[in-house]
TrEMBL record:
<feature type="transmembrane region" description="Helical">
    <location>
        <begin position="49"/>
        <end position="73"/>
    </location>
</feature>
<feature type="transmembrane region" description="Helical">
    <location>
        <begin position="20"/>
        <end position="43"/>
    </location>
</feature>
<feature type="transmembrane region" description="Helical">
    <location>
        <begin position="236"/>
        <end position="259"/>
    </location>
</feature>
<feature type="transmembrane region" description="Helical">
    <location>
        <begin position="138"/>
        <end position="158"/>
    </location>
</feature>
<feature type="transmembrane region" description="Helical">
    <location>
        <begin position="94"/>
        <end position="118"/>
    </location>
</feature>
<feature type="transmembrane region" description="Helical">
    <location>
        <begin position="351"/>
        <end position="374"/>
    </location>
</feature>
<feature type="transmembrane region" description="Helical">
    <location>
        <begin position="386"/>
        <end position="405"/>
    </location>
</feature>
<feature type="transmembrane region" description="Helical">
    <location>
        <begin position="279"/>
        <end position="300"/>
    </location>
</feature>
<feature type="transmembrane region" description="Helical">
    <location>
        <begin position="321"/>
        <end position="339"/>
    </location>
</feature>
<feature type="transmembrane region" description="Helical">
    <location>
        <begin position="411"/>
        <end position="433"/>
    </location>
</feature>
<feature type="transmembrane region" description="Helical">
    <location>
        <begin position="192"/>
        <end position="215"/>
    </location>
</feature>
<keyword id="KW-1133">Transmembrane helix</keyword>
<dbReference type="InterPro" id="IPR050833">
    <property type="entry name" value="Poly_Biosynth_Transport"/>
</dbReference>
<dbReference type="GO" id="GO:0005886">
    <property type="term" value="C:plasma membrane"/>
</dbReference>
<keyword id="KW-0472">Membrane</keyword>
<keyword id="KW-0812">Transmembrane</keyword>
<feature type="transmembrane region" description="Helical">
    <location>
        <begin position="165"/>
        <end position="186"/>
    </location>
</feature>
Amino acid sequence: MEATKGLGILRSQRAQKNVLLAFIYKGGSILVSLLLISIIIKFLDKENYGVWLTLSSIIGWLGFFDIGLGNGLRNKLSISLANNDREKGMQYVSTAYASLAIIMGSLFLLFVIINSFLNWQKILNTNIVSESILTRCALLVFFSFGLKFVLDLISVIVTASQRSALAGLINFLTNVTVLLLTFVLTKLSQPSLFNFVALTTLSPIAVLLLANFFLFYKDSMYSSLRPKVSHIRSYLVKDLFGLGLQFFVIQVMVIIIFSTHNIMISQIFSPAEVTPYNIAFRYFSVVTMVFSIILTPYWPAFTEAHVRHDNQWISGSVRKLIYVWLLSVLGTVIMLVFSREVYRLWLGPEVTVPFSVSAGMAIFVTISNWNSIFATYINSISKIRLQLFNSILTGIVTIPLSYYLSKYTSLGLSGIIIGTSICLLFGSVWAPIQYRKLITNKAKGIWNK
């Protein structure tokens, strides 16, 4: 009992340290992102920026074709480290890198063939950028995103080892690099969508290459997990993908729920309307980011506590997270009240964001953060079958509902996010129920799968 209590205290201290450091890094990343948006809009103009956002969101779907391998690796590696089995951990890491590299390489070769047949001007509903430039941009974004997803496994590894703040540091350094190079680009180049795309997609790869090299070769904690060809185990692919496939389906539904927003806005309204929508999303995502900073260290910590049957620590931690959520609701309301003034100070009078869009984002953030508390625990112990079915149902309903509310009611642009928020309410009900059943060891049937 004393040993379990001691481990719980250590686990809490690690989580608190990660949260504190992550706040510093994420705070810096938020500031950098806000500065970057202002620079980009002035450099590209509103419609070019909307084209970039839509293009990146479409090709960003590529990230979900790791078949959930990243989340599968996070859980399996956390269990290996909790059991002090670093040899097994190295095998999982090596197999994950090899598998994801093969997946992304295959998808890129397929995209090279398909890309020449795509009409990007029609897809993006724009004619201000030539088809040849859009085709080259799409090819470059696809290549760099694919390579980034492989290299970004290092963030999964540091998170699984309960050092999630390191992932925040890597992201911060990436954002700073993009900001500095974008600023230089605005001084040395005429407005160019292709130059901007090349800079913002290739510079993160350089940072991730350095992070992989430094941690695997210079940090003793991770050198024993360094991926090696000799440690690739084909039989572990089933281990990673068996769990990962369920995460994959959930992630595909997340694509449908979120990434189709920009496409719907471009088609129902125009690419220019993507910009105010995205600005409101980024503004209120500050709350989501802060909440995510707090939640992230708890995923591997919940996994370790579950392996050690420390349900008391888990329930106490969830209770604290609910109190934090209540504070986040207050913060969201304050942000909504002052949103117009903030937009004006941030971006000037050039961009107008309807208050109804801001209100819809505030509702969405509140519901999403509530769901995230319970999803973090449920995901960490791999009891995701119910979440799988819920995500499929939500994905099926959200597009027609959001489309109807935005096109055929007076809600307009805000109908997109309100439709999504309504669909998220399903998870707000069943997830707390499943958590309670799991933590009290009363979960049976689908509640325990």
